[in-house]
């Protein structure tokens, strides 16, 4: 009782003391903000900022060069838009893992508004992102992501892919759309509860639009629309991208309408069904994120992400093994040792096949599919390495700088499977292998992608030997990627000789 009486008598002192402490902290933070500076960078020019220093067709190469001068963290002005670039494994890990909350948002940009308008899984923020990601990961697991049931879906898709390749009878053909179709069918079986025939005209149209979106996003004219939205709108630089997204969303909307009519709680065949059931359960709530807009965007996110990077990696793999036939031969020898003829590869086989595993990892590293990563942004003013990064700043964790980091890889610019093998030929993991990014925004479908890469890659090399068309030498094969947000191989022709 005496303590309470004393405390009440001193309450006024405590109030004044609390006010003093609060004002002191506010003053210290004010000084910190006034004295802290953004990371260094080149002096921007009026209107164009630092665009004169960046090759918009291959921005990752320009940023790698600039990092040599300005270091691991620097500021760059893309027109009027100020961005912070992170280069190197250590600082990217520090930002995305150690300070995950500080760099956990996605920026709101004109191009991202076209693609998602703040909905879905990949480009959303806050409670929408948390709800959609939690539901999506849970649902993908329910449909077997990382389990035997998805393994069988991939194996089932291997057979029509192999038959389609055989139909070319060893003559030159472009494998691009075939690989895209096979990989896309795996995610289609999870989303829609069914696969499509490769020659289905609707499916072909969808695959081509999906293929086109990352190319469009990475073109200089769409990037200029992002930096100068008024000028971009005036010139119509974004129209093709807008139309593709609209058409894809229209297809998904029609599929969801059809599924809604036949919805059966006892027969949930795919992600759309599961979402519609969740939407029904949440319908009595005053507020819910399970609306039509999030459904369309989540499905588009899964459809695109579940097709693009995996199919691109496999296409890089075939091109690289045509260029390095001795590596292809060694993979096939390991396949023959551990997988019987006529028997499809399984995920369990990976443990016995270190060289094949190393080759797949090196294809991902060398291919550098998403060189700029997906951009992050700061939800508040944050500090990194003593520099101030203001709230809402777009941050680019440059994946090229990690996958090609000279301090992490013996021969970063050479295709070398030994990066993932020890002196005894055993597979070794590498901290700097982050093609799926790091932290809370890392790819949600990483487990599925890894399974697909091993089963498709191993199954194709078990069935075929790939080589250049007549008249094309391995030295003629071009490893310079095409222009786009993702780095895809320049279109090439291949010949496939059956191994049995």
Query: Could you state the order of secondary-structure elements as H and E?
Result: HHHEEHHHHHHHHHHHHHHEEEEHHEE
| Neighbour order of strands in the largest sheet | 1-2-6-3
Mean pLDDT: 90
Q: Could you describe the largest sheet, including whether it forms a barrel?
A: 4 strands, mixed
Give Rg in angstroms.
25 Å
Quaternary structure type: single chain
How many DSSP H or I helices? Answer: 19
Helix proportion: 40-55%
* Relative strand content: 5-15%
Strand elements, count: 8
Distance between the termini: 92 Å
Unreliable runs, pLDDT <50, ≥5 residues? 1-11, 13-35
Backbone structural class: alpha+beta
| Dominant shape | globular
Topology (elements, then pairings):
Layout: H1 2-9, H2 11-35, H3 59-70, E1 73-78, E2 81-87, H4 89-98, H5 110-115, H6 126-142, H7 148-166, H8 176-191, H9 201-217, H10 220-227, H11 229-235, H12 239-261, H13 271-282, H14 292-305, H15 308-323, H16 325-338, H17 354-367, E3 376-377, E4 382-384, E5 387-389, E6 394-398, H18 400-403, H19 446-463, E7 464-467, E8 495-498
Parallel strand pairs: 2-6
Antiparallel strand pairs: 1-2, 3-6, 4-5, 7-8
Helix pairs in contact: 7-8, 7-19, 8-9, 8-14, 8-15, 9-12, 10-11, 12-14, 15-16, 15-17, 15-19
């Amino acid at each position: 009782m005496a303590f309470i009486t004393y405390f009440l008598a001193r309450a006024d002192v405590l109030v004044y003391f609390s006010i003093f402490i609060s004002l002191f902290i506010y003053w210290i933070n004010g000084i910190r903000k006034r004295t802290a500076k953004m990371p260094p960078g080149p002096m921007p020019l009026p209107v164009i900022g630092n665009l004169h220093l960046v090759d918009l067709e291959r921005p990752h190469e320009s940023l790698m060069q600039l990092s040599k001068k300005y270091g691991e963290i620097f500021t760059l002005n893309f027109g009027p838009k100020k961005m912070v670039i992170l280069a190197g494994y250590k600082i990217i890990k520090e930002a995305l893992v150690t300070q995950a909350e500080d760099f956990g948002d996605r920026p709101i940009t004109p191009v991202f508004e076209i693609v998602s308008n703040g909905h879905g899984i990949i480009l959303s923020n806050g409670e929408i992102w948390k709800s959609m990601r939690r539901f999506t990961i849970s649902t993908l697991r329910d449909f077997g992501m990382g389990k035997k049931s998805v393994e069988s879906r991939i194996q089932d898709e291997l057979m029509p892919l192999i038959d389609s390749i055989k139909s070319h009878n060893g003559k030159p053909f472009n494998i691009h759309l075939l690989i895209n179709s096979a990989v896309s069918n795996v995610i289609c079986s999870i989303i829609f509860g069914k696969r499509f025939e490769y020659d289905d005209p609707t499916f072909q149209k969808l695959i081509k639009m999906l293929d086109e979106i990352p190319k469009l996003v990475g073109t200089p004219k769409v990037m200029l629309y992002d930096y100068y939205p008024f000028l971009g709108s005036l010139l119509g630089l974004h129209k093709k991208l807008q139309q593709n997204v609209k058409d894809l969303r229209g297809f998904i909307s029609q599929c969801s309408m059809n599924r809604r009519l036949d919805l059966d709680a006892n027969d949930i065949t795919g992600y759309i069904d599961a979402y519609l059931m969740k939407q029904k359960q949440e319908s009595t709530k005053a507020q819910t994120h399970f609306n039509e807009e999030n459904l369309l965007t989540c499905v588009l996110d899964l459809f695109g992400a579940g097709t693009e990077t995996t199919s691109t990696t496999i296409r890089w793999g075939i091109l690289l093994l045509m260029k390095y036939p001795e590596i292809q031969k060694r993979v096939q020898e390991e396949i023959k040792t551990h997988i019987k003829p006529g028997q499809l590869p399984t995920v369990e086989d990976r443990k016995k096949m270190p060289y094949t595993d190393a080759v797949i990892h090196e294809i991902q590293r060398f291919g550098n599919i998403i060189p700029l990563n997906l951009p992050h942004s700061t939800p508040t003013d944050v500090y990194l390495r003593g520099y101030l990064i203001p709230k809402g700043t777009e941050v680019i964790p440059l994946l090229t700088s990690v996958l090609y980091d000279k301090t992490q890889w013996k021969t970063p610019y050479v295709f070398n499977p030994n990066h993932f093998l020890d002196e005894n030929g055993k597979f070794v993991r590498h901290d700097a292998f982050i093609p799926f990014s790091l932290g809370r925004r890392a790819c949600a479908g990483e487990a599925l992608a890894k399974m697909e890469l091993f089963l498709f890659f191993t199954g194709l090399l078990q069935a075929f030997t790939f080589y250049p068309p007549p008249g094309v030498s391995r030295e003629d094969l071009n490893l310079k990627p095409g222009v786009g947000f993702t780095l895809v191989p320049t279109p090439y022709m291949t010949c496939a000789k059956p191994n049995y």
